[in-house]
Amino acid sequence: MKNKIKRRTVLKSLAAASVLSQAPLFGYKSAFAANNTLVYGSAGTVTSSWDPTSHTVAPQIVMEGFTFSKLTNCPMTTDNPSEILPDLATDWKVIDQYNLEYKLREGVSFHNGQPFSAKDVKATMEYGCNPERPASAWYPGKVKVDIVDDYTVRLNTEEFGYSASNFWFVSSFLPILCAEDVANPDKLKQSPNGTGAFAYNKTDGDRIILKAFDNYHFGRPQIDELVYAYVPDANSRALGLMNGELDLVERLEPEQYFTLKEKDGIVTDLSPTSENMYMHFRCNKAPFDDVRMRQAVAHAIDREQVLAVADVAGFASNSHLNPVKFGYTDVPNYPEYNPAKCQELMAAAGYPNGKGLPELEYISSVGFYPKTREYNELITAMLNEQGIPAKLTLLEPAAWEERIYNHELGHMVHVGWITGSPEPDLVLRPNYYSDYSFIGGFNDPEMDATLNRERDAATPEEKLDRLQNEVLPMLADKVPSVSLFSANFMRAHTSRLSGVKFYPNGPYDLSKATLS
Asked: Mind spelling out the 3-state secondary structure of 321-386?
């Protein structure tokens, strides 16, 4: 443990042998023979419901990026993370503390031909922000949408006592639904009906087939057909790209990225995400209902060595927020590697040298995020070195998705959290507010009050101050999770593909892309 791992040494030894180990037999190109069909190899699958408010699943958010539009668009570049661009809204302004006005784009239609107007925004926002919806944790709270005219709405939060400016960034994240679909939840679940560049055609096993939407408001895409193919193994995704069965792949391992980077006819992309990699504690049960044990584990992890194994898949940060999020700062009291402190805290919690601790299961996916097997094996060894009896359970993505939200399974869970807006509450409230706390079962009234105080800030400046000086330091002390590092995306595509835009939360803009 004490010898620092040199990341290049690790990867160069793996790169030569790892990628060319098996041959995939997908048959995508033979099944979809059209010359202007793009096959996208996804690391994750979608849920059984097409309702965007029914889940917090990253692969499905990517899928929804092809079929739905939002009021605004946040590219979240590192140079300008707070930039907001028009989409279904053409203009927006703060009226007062409780009212945020949007002017809507005219001449837009849904895939079923229904015209888009203010009633669809009202139905979507009031439905999606209802606390009964599973994804409502992403949004500030209930909202009343006042229709000024067919193409003007005001988000009104006065009845609910918080500032409407909380939607300033969030409006770039919630997919806008057809009001008729919202009124019929069963229909909403069955197939996506958005205003995006591609319309749903059919599902064929683990493939979802989309077609270009002729009436897309920014112009019909030049790619006629898009196949969303679930390919859970990263090696298979790389091979599929090399043999021409896949055109665009995501979430590569570093050795695959470096191998593909040297291949003719392939273009690679390495770029920051809006995602951090976390170890979440099951705070609802022993031993991690005791903050001292959470702190002990945090001090047992040498994040510098973890990052050395992750290599180009990540970069260092000391915060529960990603650097593209509003309010990010490196937190001075963020827990650092300190074995002596770890032992002190375990003894104070009643487990001197780890004695009396049960076997602690650490759940992680393999094949979805890069290098999870390798660095989580390292973390498990680090914990055992301190007397913490951790056991690593590695699961393929679908099985892992089924377990991470069940607070009774395991004691620690490895999860990334990625969202399509600079709004920090998209990370903070779903994970650390007691009414939600999807992964960790964290229940802490003091944390709730601090998060509500941040949400209720009257101005962006006040919100920033409360984030950096109250919320983030408190999270570093209470440690409901450990943010291991901030993540990079490693993607690749055929050189025949041009004009694709990559977003740091995973989705792609293929509306102006072409296949030569």
From this structure: CCCCCCCCCCCCCCCCCCHHHHHHHHHHCCCHHHCCCCCEEEEEECCCCCCHHHHHHHHHHHHHHC
Please say if the pLDDT value at position 375 is more than 90: yes
CA nearest to 46, candidates 263, 266, 210: 210
Q: Note whether 26 and 107 are same-domain residues.
A: no
Nearest to 304 by CA among 338, 341, 328: 338
pTM of the model: 0.85
Separation between Cα atoms, residue 62 and residue 60, nearest integer Å = 5
d(CA 507, CA 63): 7
HSE-CB for 501 with a 13 A CA cutoff: 12
Q: How many CB atoms lie within 10 A of CB 97?
A: 14
- Paired tokens of 326: 């509003």
Tell me phi and psi for residue 15, to 5 degrees.
-60, -40
Q: Do 169 and 201 lie in a common domain? A: no
Query: What's the rounded Cα separation, in Å, for the pair 317 and 486?
Result: 6
One domain, residues 226 and 332: no
Same domain, 332 and 449: yes
Residues 510 and 442 in one domain: no
Maximum C-alpha span of the chain: 68
| CATH code for position 243 | 3.40.190.10
As a three-state string, the secondary structure of 361-379 is EEEEECCCCCCHHHHHHHH
Query: Residues with Cβ < 8 Å from 416, sequence gap 6 or more?
Result: 58, 275, 276, 277, 278, 369, 487
In a domain, 2, yes or no: no
Q: Are residues 151 and 61 in the same domain?
A: no
Let me know whether 410 and 495 are in one domain: no
- Classify 515 as helix, strand or coil: strand
Residue at a domain's end among 138, 167, 188: 188
- What stretches of 76-198 show up as alpha helix (H) in DSSP? 118-128, 167-170, 179-182, 185-190
Q: Please tell me the distance from the alpha carbon of residue 217 to that of residue 69, in angstroms, as a whole number.
A: 10
pLDDT band at 77 (very low <50, low <70, confident <90, very high): confident
What tokens does 198 get?
A: 């591609």
- Residue 36 contacts residue 224 (beta carbons within 8 Å): yes
How many domains does the chain fold into?
A: 3
Mean pLDDT of 476-489: 98
- The domain boundary residue, chosen from 148, 167, 188: 188
**Domain extent at residue 144:** 72-188
Cα-trace Rg, the chain: 23
Burial (CB count <10 Å: 0-12, 13-18, 19+), residue 269: middle
Position 288: which residue type? F
**367 pLDDT tier (thresholds 50, 70, 90):** confident
Would 52 be classed as within a structural domain?
A: yes
CA distance 17 to 467: 46
Q: What are the tokens at 35?
A: 């010359």
Instruction: Please indicate, yes or no, if residue 3 is contained in any of the structural domains.
Output: no
